[in-house]
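Please, is this right?
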Amino acid sequence: MNRTTLSLIAAATALAAVTGFATLEPADTSDGSASATAARLPVERTSLLCPQPSASDIADTTYTSFTPVVEGASGSGKAQLQAATEKSADGDDSSGSSDSSDGKKSGAKAAKPVVQPKEPGKPAAGDTSGADAPALVGLASGKFAPGWTVQETTEVAAGAGRGLLGTNCTAPDTEFWFPGASTAAQRTDYVHLTNPDDAAAVVDIDLYGKDGTLKSTVADGITVQAHASEPILLNTLTGDPQADLTVHVKVRSGRVGAAVQALDAKTGGDWLASSADPAGSLVMPGIPKDATSVRLVAFAPGDTDADLKVRLASPSGTITPAGNETLHVKAGMTAAADLGDVTRGEAGSLVLTPTGSSVPVVAALLVVRGKGADQETAFIPATAPVGARATVADNTAKGSTLAVTAPGEGARIKVTASAGSGGGTAVSKTFTIKGGTTQNVEVPVPSGLKGTYALTVEPVSGGPVYASRMLSANQDGVPAFTIQGLPDDRGTVSVPDAEQDLSVLLKQ
């Protein structure tokens, strides 16, 4: 291998170490065609951040880690998940940040990891409990890095936010959008910021209500100390209560993980994950068939109003919700629409497309199951397509629902259930998803299953697909549930062909 190729792969590896996913693309020629092809190789290092799970003394949280078996991955490596403030007993930096000049990590101490998987292809689990459970930081390298996925699932039996709360632990980044937050009287919403690095991060939080930007004197220049997590109560940032709120987290320096924990005094709570990047068309997959209420919240971050077609991809095809055919979103303002029991007993996914010119928007759904005092809530933010492969952990033999939608062209997908965390044999099934529909596919279960297992979704042919997984449980008559999207698991990085020279440009 020549020196040029080594340099290119080193650059890609460096990017992958920071984000878990990197792309190297060749410079375009004068006719707009690529000057060389690129190969996809497994990432060699990735990091994930899990927010502090709960402030409740009766909260019980499970963390489940999984890495698919990937051809061509390194034969060695490790993965571990531990408190953001701590350092592993063997001195390995689990946060992925650099050592300080004296060779020691500031403010760190030795600790046993909460989760430390033994091999790819088999889930590993750990747990915490109570209000003192910390935010966690994880690093995976070598064979554990490609497609590494960690699920945080919390059960809270009573109190504000009671129910089932779940989130996929995410890679650190510098910008996040959260349409669907609230500062209404019955809601207590926190934005959790976790800093995995050695230097403090500085973060701005912008809030947008139905009339535009909400004034705040304390939302700019928030410092998140190194190896620390800060829960910011949203109603302390502004005195103007808003039923529907869009939160924009921007990092001035450093990088953080961010997630919104939304707690409702009457209808439980869940994590609101960040929406997919602003785009003209969005998909929110996996509305439960027994949803009793669905509320759409959208925001247009630019200077142009957005007019959107609202469509539901059902098992039989795409339909228009009566009375909610379109949604007008004014620039810089949060818009919302009550869709009621839009699924009417069938699985569904909401699809937003422009009525005319494409204007980038972000969006999310607030979903309610149950009635009266036995209601529970969850969120479905707009998600990116499955891509090459998507993975979700912490599935059980009962209580897991996988929803897949093909909003355009039909597609075939392969769904693989991993071995169980305590034993069992992996199994795969292939499904056909008709164009314009959503299917709750029959989730395969590992033979001889013990413990929990992971699901991996891989497109085989056809158009783009979007997916989500719902975990559900009955808590004294309350239909507790949580929903996680399945975007591409960032398992590979694109590296230029060996013939390519140093004229290659890095494009982000």
Observations:
- Residues 1-36, 88-109, 499-508 have pLDDT under 50 and may be disordered.
